[in-house]
Amino acid sequence: MRRIFSCILLLIFLLSTPRVYAAMPSLQEEQLIKLLTQIIILLQEQLRLLQARHAITLQTSPPSEAIVYLRCRYAPKNGAGEEVALRGTGVTINPEGQILTVRHLVDPLWAAQSYPNDPNTSLYHTIGEGYISNGCEVSTISALLPSSQEIKTINPRISAGSPQYEAVLSFVPQKDTMSDEEYASVDFALLKTVRIFECATCALPRTFPHVVIRTTPEAGTPELVSYGYPIEGPPSNVPFLKGAVGNLVKYFSGNARFANTPFLFEWTANDSRQGRSGSPIFSLGKLIGIEIGATENNVTQNYALGMPAIHSILTAHGAATSTVK
């Protein structure tokens, strides 16, 4: 870096000092070309070093394109009235483009029954009884995800832009051997990416960027990072991705099917707001759970559905995921 700065300073000196610059008319072009060439070579070397260092960082960072903003639309069953929408976050979990998100975003009647005391319960009832799903718009970003340190200091807002894909509901868990309490807490669903947004004849990508899943519980209280699209304004506003950082507090087991399985976990996210439901939670770049809610009077006390339980259900369903033990 010092060599680069030295060359740049010399170039600035030559160009900003008319007497020196004019004193060497026969050499000025040749010397400037050599100097610029040397600066370019040094910059290229520095770029390779930065890329090598960045590659190490990327090994513990999920692909940004896998974290998606969802706007799920509902049309009136009787055809009269306007469409309504629920918004949230999802994460692509396999190359086929299947998106993991919260069930209460795509199954309002289940949400009304499972969350009777939620402020949105009446809305869930209204949509579930009087509307029909019209699919979900899927938006994403291509920018690099902010690091945990960047989230702690500036937490940049990254625009997701216009919708890129359309997705439909493809799977929700069945009660089977779960207790009532477990079934009410299994707040996840799978969406299937079916087409390019507003282009039925356009071809989908052969593979989709997706995350790697960790199926065993974390030990201790590691730092966790989450990314989501909090609702920060009217529905017409452009969705912005933001990060959240916290620590794992503890796991909870279920009382029937998941009696011996890490089921839910508590963590101390520093920025949990509406719209973060479904936000993926990562430890060292591996997906360990999705955000399902926060304590009403303490937004730093958050609860997530753990991947050991989700993966168990998805495996029984036959959904492919990229996993790491």
Structure description:
The protein has 325 residues and is an alpha+beta fold. It has two domains: 2-48, no CATH class; 64-324, Thrombin, subunit H (Beta Barrel). The protein is 29% helix and 32% strand. It contains nine helices and 15 strands. A hairpin with a 5-residue loop joins β2 (84-92) and β3 (98-101). The radius of gyration is 25 Å and the shape is globular. The protein starts with a helix and ends with a strand. The model is unreliable at 52-59 (pLDDT under 50).
Low-confidence stretches at least 5 residues in length (pLDDT < 50)?
Answer: 52-59
Structural class of the helix and strand makeup?
A: alpha+beta
Treating each run of at least 4 consecutive H or I residues as one helix, how many helices?
9
CATH topology type of the largest domain: Thrombin, subunit H
CATH class of the largest domain: Mainly Beta
The CATH architecture of the largest domain comes to Beta Barrel
Strand order of the largest sheet: 1-2-3-7-6-4
The separation of the N and C termini measures 41 Å
Helicity, as a percent range? 25-40%
The fraction of residues in strands falls at 25-35%
In this structure, how is the largest beta sheet organized? 6 strands, antiparallel, barrel
Mean pLDDT: 84
The total count of strands amounts to 15
Return the domain count.
2
Give the radius of gyration. 25 Å
Large-scale geometry: globular
Taken in chain order, the helices and strands follow as: HHHEEEHHHEHEEHEEEEEEEEHE
